[in-house]
Amino acid sequence: MSEDILHRKQLETSDMTFDFTSEIYNYTLVIIEDLCVRTANKPLQDLGMPSPNRIAAVSTCIELDREQSYSTSDLLSYVQNNISKLTSEQKDIYDTIMHCVDNNVGEIFFLDVPGGTGKTFVIKLILASIRSKNDIALAIASSGIATTLLPVG
Q1: CA 31, 9, 52 angle in degrees (round to 5)?
Q2: DSSP structure string for 65-114
Q3: Which stretches make up the DNA helicase Pif1-like DEAD-box helicase domain (predicted)?
Q4: Rounded Cα–Cα distance for residues 111 and 105 (Å)
Q5: Is residue 138 within 8 Å of 146, Cβ to Cβ?
Q6: Is-contact 152 70, C-beta < 8 A?
Q7: Which entry of 50, 125, 130, 149 is 20 to 30 Å from 92 by CA?
Q8: C-alpha distance from residue 75 to each of 20, 33, 50 (Å)
């Protein structure tokens, strides 16, 4: 099981030299313990095995790993190649949102414009801009179709 987790990590990071870490072993213990609790209602300690460190396991969350494994150079290149393609209205939206992100201003934005006006393009550019700085950006959409159009939506 830990080999599967290692292999997944190697694929996600495009680094086949990535080797076992204590986090991988701990995450494996979390998965095994979850299975034991579901099937036998017993934690690993009751079965004579070491207990996982669940606090440390939070940092090995697969979604978080995926969110931190983007190629920042590819994302920065995407931003540089596409920012000039924004219309003036799209650029205003982009600048407003990025100003809030860069200055840690908490806001909620909802892009409610007709189809074909470039919502997905603007959102992809915002996500790429944030992720190119090694920051975390989560894509959320209010419809199933929109979610499939966003990277890791």
Answers
A1: 30
A2: HHHT-S-HHHHHHHHHHHGGG--HHHHHHHHHHHHHHHTT----------
A3: 85-153
A4: 18
A5: no
A6: no
A7: 149
A8: 28, 37, 41
